[in-house]
């Protein structure tokens, strides 16, 4: 039997370890939490983040997957699993997870931006531009989305539009 106070303390220690950049300790504490409560989705998610920081993509993927199994509406877990797929160069799988994140939260600008990046990696530039544009609609200050859209537009031969986006990107990062 686990103590709720002990569980919360270990979870907090995991958060503190992550913030300090001590990902091995964070993994240790989140694992203790999971051993006490195997249905604690946030512990899997946070342990996945620590694995991701250590470039342990397979372990991160497994933890994000478990968090999603426990809580199918855990938007950050779907988003981060998409990021893990992208880091593993499995762009079509990443798109599926970004789709899920966007389905859960249609205003998730970062998910549109990263889905756009995944489309750009598989040279589906029109889809990429559509996603970068949606990210910009949601968050007009997202410099990365302007840069990414500029790059995709340049790849499509849309030079004037690409130049506009590069200028907008520069203006945002120089603020």
The gyration radius over C-alpha positions equals 18 Å
Pattern of helices and strands: HHHHHHHHHH
Strand percentage, roughly?
A: under 5%
Sheet/helix structural class: mainly alpha
Give the strand tally. Answer: 0
**Portion of residues in helices?**
over 70%
- Poorly predicted runs of 5 or more residues: none
Outline type: elongated
Distance N to C terminus: 54 Å
Total number of helices: 10
Query: How would a textbook summarize the main sheet?
Result: none
Q: Mean pLDDT, rounded to whole units?
A: 96
Oligomer: single chain
Defining traits:
175 residues; mainly alpha; 10 helices; 80% helix; elongated
Indicate the topology:
Layout: H1 4-20, H2 23-36, H3 41-53, H4 57-70, H5 75-87, H6 91-104, H7 109-121, H8 125-138, H9 143-155, H10 159-173
Helix pairs in contact: 1-2, 1-3, 2-3, 3-4, 4-5, 5-6, 5-7, 6-7, 7-8, 7-9, 8-9, 9-10
Question: In words, what does this structure look like?
Answer:
80% of the residues lie in helices and 0% in strands. The protein has 175 residues and is mainly α. It is elongated, with a radius of gyration of 18 Å. The relative contact order is 0.07.
Can you describe this structure in just a few lines?
The protein has 10 helices and no strands.
